[in-house]
Write a structure and sequence with these properties.
Heat Shock Protein 90; alpha+beta; Helix Hairpins; Sig_transdc_His_kin-like_C; 400 residues; EC 2.7.13.3; histidine kinase; 3 domains; 13 strands; 46% helix; 4-stranded antiparallel sheet; kinase; transmembrane helix
Amino acid sequence: MGIYKTTDEKIDRLTNDHISLVSLAYRGNTDSSIQYQQNDTPDGGLSETVQVSPNQTVILYDKNGTVLNPSSDIPSATIAADLKFTTKNISKIETVSIRANSGETLLYRTIIVKANFDKHIKTNIGYIRLLVNVNQLSESLSRSQVIIITTMVSFWLISLFASIYLSNWYQRPIIDAYEKQKNFVENASHELRTPLAILQNRLELLFQRPTATIIDESENISQSLTEVRNMRILTSNLLNLAKRDGGLKVEFSEVDASYFEKIFKNYELLAENSQRHFSSTVTVKGPIKIDESLIRQVLTILFDNAIKYSEPNSKIKIQVDKQGQMLTIKTLDEGFGIADADKRKIFDRFYRVDKARTRQKGGFGLGLSLAKQIIDACGGRIEVQDNQPQGTVFIIKLKV
C-alpha cells in the first residue's frame, strides 16, 4: 500500500541490521532468558545508520518459536493469540491488529526474519519479529478518506444542482421559442380558418342558386372578395414577420424634416377620407440618420391603428421632436383606449384587446408586433400610454 511505503522501507533497513534489533529488544528488558554474548554486552547502542522510534517493538524468538522477551506494550496472551509464530511468512511484511495493555486496538506493520549473526556471537535467538505502529498513518488515511469522500460528494451535489440549473437556464429560451412558434402556428391557423370558412359558405350559397345573376349574388361576391383581401393582408404580414425573424437589415440614411412632412401629407388625405381630423408637428432641425423604409412602415402601422380604433370626427395627431441625439415620435388618438393589463401584451403576435371589435375592423394583431421588432432592430424602444381624456399614445424613442 502506498501509504505504508515509507514505513516498509524503514522496516527493510532495520531488518538488515540484526544487532540493532537485538539492542532495541534489550531496551527496557533484562530478561535472563535471552542469551546474547559478544566481546562486550550490548549497551543499547544502535548502528549509526539505523534510527529507531518509540513506535517500534521487537520480539525475539528462539529456534523453536518461543518468545524470549515479553513486551511491555503487548500482552503475552496477545502475542500468543494474534502474533502466532510461523515460518510460512518469513521476510514478508504484514499488517496485524492487536490489543495493547492499555486496552486499545493498535495497528502494526510486522515482519519475521531469521536471526543472522557472526559466528563468534553466541545466542539462543533464532528469529526476530519487528513491529512498527501505524495507527497515526491509518487514522490519517481514514481522515483523508472522509475528507475526500465528503469533498467528492459535495462537489457532486454542487455539479448536479449546477447542471440542473444550467440545463433549465439554457432550455428556457428554447422552450420560450417553441411556445412562441406553437402559439404563432395556432393563431395563424385560427386566423386563416375564419376567412376560409366564410369563403366556403359564400361559394356554397352561389351553388344553391345557379341561375342567379351577378347582381343577385353581389353581396356574397363582395363578402368573398373582402375575405380574400383579409387573407392577402394576413399572409403578407406573416411573411413580413418571418423575414423579420431571420434578422432585420437596417440601412441608415440622412433625412430631414421634409421626410416626415411628405408622409404626413398622405396621412391627411387618408384621415379626411375616413372622417378623422389629422394634425402633425415636426420639430427637427438638421439631418438625422434613420432607416427610411422601416420607420415609414412603423408610422403607417401606428396611423392605421389610430384610424381603425377611433370614432369618426375624432382627432389623430403625430408629433416628431428631436432633443439632442434623441428623436421622439408620438402618435395620439382619441380611440377606445387600452387597459393596463393589455398594455403588456399588445406587442405580442396575434394579441388583440377586443377580438370581436378588431376582427370587425380587419385587424390581426400583427402590426404592433412588427412595429416593435423594427424599433428594436433600430436600437430604439416603443411604449404605450393613456391619452387624456381618452385614447392611446404610442411613444417611440430613437438615437439619431
